[in-house]
Specification:
rod-shaped, NUA/TPR/MLP1-2-like_dom, 85% helix, coiled coil, nucleus, mainly alpha, Nucleoprotein TPR, structural constituent of nuclear pore
Length: 308
């Protein structure tokens, strides 16, 4: 019984570690969303201010300077042909071009964010479902083993009582049985709260995804309101694309961390499986003890046939 209690303590400790890991996973999701919102806000504001100062210094330009092909770059072409202007008619044409570019880049940005968020959410929803199923199966197996162990202990105690009635010493037979029965009665077999926590984590993940869609809709509304202010600011979208690339790298790092956490969960589940096997071996030992007591009882019946 001491070995069985130790196994229960180890299983409880591992479940506590699993709950902590799930909490860490939720914190990582919150940090990802917070970092994404702050990155979008700071990146847009910083790029807008920098490009505004740069473009205002060269906006009115009547003559274009001739440069060599080696000096031609995307930023210089944008500044030369889209930012600067010679008259009102030209700036109107450039505004139309900028609106077209803004719509294209906005659509690309939206598709990239939607695809990335959908892939991440779907992947970790599957991970949570798989872990929840495995935890539920282990919990059911543990309850079954506990019930089987309790039944075996009752049988052992019954045989010991029968042997005691045949003249064996009660203290040598019932002492460990009373102790094991008392320990079994004092051992709580309450439902595992980790399953509920896993389901709650999955529901929370769905809620966070819905909140993300609402926030994205709000960001789109803000983007539409600021289009007029960004007509002379095409370089801001180049900076935005660079920022998106860095965000993708950031998400990839986060995904690696979450992969590592998932591997840790799998190792913990494997450890729980090993502990269950040890419990099965302990049950086999008790069954062997019951068989031995049954043989002793049969011998006692043969020895005292008139008293049975």
């Amino acid at each position: 019984m001491q070995e069985y209690d130790k196994l229960n303590e180890i299983i409880s400790c591992l479940k506590s570690q699993l709950a902590t890991a799930l909490c860490d996973y939720e914190k990582v999701l919150e940090e990802r969303n917070d970092a994404k919102r702050m990155g979008n806000l700071c990146g847009r504001e910083n790029a807008r201010l920098k490009s505004q100062v740069s473009d205002l210094n060269r906006q009115v330009q009547r003559e274009e300077e001739v440069t060599s092909s080696d000096d031609v770059s995307a930023a210089k072409i944008i500044s030369r042909h889209l930012v600067t202007f010679r008259d009102i008619e030209e700036i109107q044409l450039k505004n139309q071009k900028l609106l077209t570019v803004i719509k294209d880049l906005s659509q690309q940005h939206e598709e990239m964010e939607k695809k990335l968020s959908t892939e991440i959410t779907t992947k970790f929803e599957k991970e949570i479902v798989n872990l929840s199923v495995q935890l539920e199966n282990l919990q059911k197996k543990r309850v079954q083993q506990s019930e089987l162990l309790e039944t075996i202990i009752r049988q052992r105690d019954m045989y010991r009582v029968l042997l005691t009635s045949q003249g064996f010493q009660k203290s040598s037979l019932l002492g460990p049985a009373d102790q094991s029965t008392t320990m079994l009665q004092n051992t709580p077999f309450s439902p595992d709260p980790q399953l509920k926590e896993a389901k709650s984590a999955m529901a929370q993940l769905q809620t966070e995804f819905n909140n993300y869609k609402k926030e994205k809709a709000e960001n789109e509304r803000i983007l539409n309101e600021t289009i007029d202010q960004m007509r002379t600011d095409l370089s801001d979208f180049r900076i935005e694309n660079t920022k998106l690339s860095s965000q993708i790298e950031f998400y990839n790092e986060r995904i690696k961390i979450l992969h590592s956490n998932a591997e840790m969960y799998k190792k913990e589940i494997a450890s729980l499986t090993d502990k269950s096997k040890q419990n099965s071996e302990l049950i086999a030992k008790h069954q062997k003890s019951v068989n031995s007591l049954r043989q002793d009882l049969m011998k006692a019946q043969e020895k005292f046939p008139g008293q049975m």
